[in-house]
Structures are given as structure tokens and as C-alpha cells.
Amino acid sequence: MTHKTACLATVGLVLFSVLGLTGCHMTLGPRFGIFGYPIPLSPYFQDRQEDAFWMKERYERVPILEPIVPGAPCIALDPPSDDEVMRALEKARPVEGGIPLLHEVQRNNVRITKELIADSIDPPRVYPLIGPAQLHHVRYKCTVYFTETTRVGWPVPYTTKNEDCREVVYIDHDHLHMVGNVDPGAGP
Q1: Residues forming beta bridges with residue 147, ordered by sequence position
Q2: pLDDT by residue (tens digit) across 41-66?
Q3: pTM of the full structure
Q4: Burial code of 51-83, b = ≥16 C-beta within 10 A, e = fewer?
């Protein structure tokens, strides 16, 4: 009986020392209790935050460009990218989501045309935190042609396909041009 008790005590001591060496229980630093464990989140929330950051970084800022040189042609910035057009279309008429196998809508065979419809420059004025600048208005009409496929799975499964869908999205690319002497070291 004493031999069994000695063996169990030895095994218990070895397990206790091995458990202490794993780093799981003998940690230093703050203890957060139940909040110290990771909480699983849906990828939906991460995608939403990434999309908001992408839109702010790419499309929601107004650039401030160099002054307009007298006699030089004043042309607009680049036309909107296909990504910007599709994001604007998705905001105006969303198809994302749906219920798989019950109701799904897809846009296929997408073709985009971009047309400059307005290009004007306002007279100079002083903008807070920027200084004297001119606002350059640029407006594009973007027409998106696509095939819309709608699949319904219940109660009666069917698929409809509209081959000649067309949506029009207007995108403004307003930006500022500095006015006056932007290099204070240069002469008049």
C-alpha cells in the first residue's frame, strides 16, 4: 500500500511540474479573467470594416493639386475605376446577400462605359484649413450593362435571366487646385 501511495505521489509531482512548465498556468502580467479568451466573430463584420476603410482611403477624400498654369489645358483627373463604379452601383442597388438555394441574384457579363458630362472650375476662394483654392467639378455618367440571373429555389424552383439590364450611375470627382504662390521661397 505504501508502494502505491509513493508511486501516485511521484506521478502527481511529475504531472504538477510538467503542467507548470507548459506556460498555460504560471503566467506573469495582467489577468483579464473571462475576457482573456478570444471571442469568435463573424467574417461579415471584418469585411464591412475593410470595405469602409477601402472606400475612405480610395474614394472619399478630396485631393489638393498644384495650381492651374495659365495657358495650359485644365483637364480632369482620371475617370472612375471599374471598382469605384461597381461599388457605387452596389450602394445604389445592392444584390449582395440573399439566401442560398432559396433566392439568389447575380450580375454577370458586366460591361461599363464612362462618359464625361461636366467639367468646370469655380473662382478662387479661401477654404478653412486649406487656404486659397479653386474647386474643380468633374462629373461622369457611368452606364453598366450586365446580365441579371435570379434563381429561386422554393416553393417552385425556377431561374430567370434578363440579358439586357442597364443601370446608370453618376460619379463626381471633385478636387481642389491651390491658388497663388504655393512655394514661399520663390519670388513674385
Answers
A1: 108
A2: 888 898 999 999 998 988 888 888 88
A3: 0.69
A4: eeeeeeeeeeeeeeeeebeeeeeeebeebbeee
